[in-house]
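Minutes, project check-in
Item: structure for the 141-residue chain
Input as provided by the requester:
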Amino acid sequence: MNQRLRRSPPDVVYTPIDVTSNLDGLARLNVEWVDRGMAQTSHQRVILDMDSSESPVHGQQEGVAYNGHFGSVCYHPLFLFNHFGDCEGAMLRPGNVHSAERWREVLEPVVKRYQEKATVLKVKRNEQRMWKSCRARASDA
């Protein structure tokens, strides 16, 4: 028999994943990606559009819950896009949260980044209550 076939596979070393640093790294990567795209445009202002979505699941994944509005067991992620279609931010949330829950955690870092670059912002949100709050916060800064 061939010697290679008789060898046992090399030992596999599993290292725990640091979820926080992975998420931070992905966020930085996304910021760099969007910044590179924005550097290729001659924009005077940026329009940000925030909305939640339904992400149905099949199984018992951590954080899923029944959402009566969607009528499904799902996650209820929150997305923030600019008017060029770039995803500026996102958050995976449990399925049973209100569509506006934790929006500041997604929006505020992006607004701050653009304000540091002296870019004019307009924030669009389908839900009237959140829109008023976003508009007030953007005009305060």
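Outcome recorded: Strands lie at 45-52, 55-56, 65-67, 72-75, 78-82, 87-91, 120-125.
No further action items on this chain.
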